[in-house]
Amino acid sequence: MPDSKENKMRLSALKTQKTNEHEKVQIFIDGSNLYHGLKNDCSNTMLDFTLFAGMLCRGRTLIRSTYYIGTIDATRNKDQAQGQQKFLSKLRYYPYLDVKTRPLTYKKGGAVEKGVDILIATDMLTGALRNCYDTAVLVSGDGDFAPVLDEIKRAGKQVENATFSSCRSDALVNASDLFIELTKEDLKDCFIKTK
């Protein structure tokens, strides 16, 4: 597995590498994982998803991005639920970006996402089998997706994994054709500019 310096060189090389503009890319975003990575590694969660998708596509054709998230129960926390719904409403204005949700499940230890990972896995596999894309980009550090990436590769597709070092899973990195370590420096042009 490459260390951060080696990966950084790979990412730099990718930015200058000639890409196939006809290669179809679909991006699958684990919203909770991305949010925590942005918060921990960048101290900024205000991402412009059009610019982010462009960075991940690197000149290839974006078919679609999908943002997956567990939704907060308003009866348990009205303010957080309203804030999340406001954010999700804004996401729906981005072109070629779908939002898919599942309600959070509440237990003694707090809120838990249920069904989100299965939804991501199902969409990734279905897209591969229906030939919707050539390359799947999974934005997540959840190692549970490693077998899904293996199956997508067996279907003749390429898989890339993009996440932060704080969220990275060795199993996921090893299952992907390309690992892209997201850093504050790499994302600096993808953040929404505040006045």
Task: Please describe what this structure looks like.
The chain is of the alpha/beta class. It has a domain at 22-66 and 113-190: 5'-nuclease (Rossmann fold). The chain is 42% helix and 25% strand. The chain has eight helices and eight strands. The strands form two sheets. It has a six-stranded parallel β-sheet, with helices on both faces. The longest helix is centred in the middle third of the chain and has 14 residues, at 78-91.
SSE pattern: HEHHEHEEEHEHEHEH
Strand order in the sheet with the most strands: 3-2-1-6-7-8
Major beta sheet summary = 6 strands, parallel
Query: What is the total tally of β strands?
Result: 8
What is the SS-derived class?
alpha/beta
CATH topology term of the domain at 22-66 and 113-190: Rossmann fold
Summed over residues and divided by their number, the pLDDT gives a mean of 90
Shape: globular
* CATH architectural grouping of the domain at 22-66 and 113-190: 3-Layer(aba) Sandwich
Topology:
Blueprint lengths: L3 H13 L7 E7 H12 L6 H9 L3 E11 L6 H14 L5 E7 L1 E3 L2 E3 L3 H14 L5 E5 L6 H9 L3 E7 L5 H6 L2 E5 L1 H4 L8
Parallel strand pairs: 1-2, 1-6, 2-3, 6-7, 7-8
Antiparallel strand pairs: 4-5
